[in-house]
Amino acid sequence: MNMRLLFRIINITQICLITIMAALIPTTTVAGQFVSEQQLLNYTDTYGNVSLRNSANIRLPDPMRVKGNLNLENSHLTQLPNALTVKGNLDLAYSQITQLPLNINVGGYINLAHSAITSINNGLQVKGDLSLMGTKIKALPPYLYVGGNLYLANTAITELPQFLVVKGNIFLGGAPISDINENVHVEGKIYR
């Protein structure tokens, strides 16, 4: 076989392989990379927990259902899906999230400690603990339900909202709350 023809066939084969590989490997863009349900399999363990800790600014599928826990701690994520269901815990500590979606259902705790959260949904139902420690949040909405403990240390919250229900304890830890509204129901203790 002619050597020139052999080299030409090898070059064409290499170009085809590179093209096929480029099509199979998803391109990564720093801002707004979309993560599909199939790609989430790479971040899901055998218990259904999804861990995207320290991830760049990504876009999650909408709606999104997680069978276990969803860990987005220290991520650069700025927006959650409009419909989010997490059967376990939701960890958004140190994230860039400023608000929760209106259609959110979490089976365990929600950790928003040191995140960029600025407001909480009216009537939010948290089945486990709710941590807002170290956030810039200034007020809680009425009809907030917390099935575990409520952590408010180092926040700017000055009063507890109407019809707040906390099944566990409230940890104020430096939050400037002076009066407790008579419509607040706390089954545990309030620690200053």
What does this structure look like?
- The protein is α/β, with parallel strands linked by helices and 192 residues long.
- It is 14% helix and 22% strand.
- It has two helices and 17 strands.
- The chain has helices at 3-24, 37-40, and strands spanning 31-34, 50-51, 57-59, 64-66, 70-71, 83-86, 90-91, 103-106, 110-111, 125-126, 130-131, 145-146, 150-151, 165-166, 170-171, 185-186, 190-191.
- The strands form four sheets. It has an eight-stranded parallel sheet, with no helix packed on it. It has a four-stranded parallel sheet with strand order 10-12-14-16, with no helix packed on it. The chain has a three-stranded parallel sheet with strand order 4-6-8, with no helix packed on it.
- It is elongated.
- The protein starts with a helix and ends with a strand.
- Mean pLDDT is 84; it is low at 15-32.
Q: Strand order across the biggest sheet?
A: 2-5-7-9-11-13-15-17
The percent range for strand residues is: 15-25%
Task: Report how far apart the termini are.
Answer: 86 Å
Largest sheet: 8 strands, parallel
- How many extended strands? 17
Poorly predicted runs: 15-32
- Structure class: alpha/beta
Element order, helices and strands? HEHEEEEEEEEEEEEEEEE
Overall pLDDT: 84
Which shape, going by the Cα principal axes?
elongated
State the helicity in percent bands: 10-25%
**Which value, in Å, is the CA radius of gyration?**
23 Å
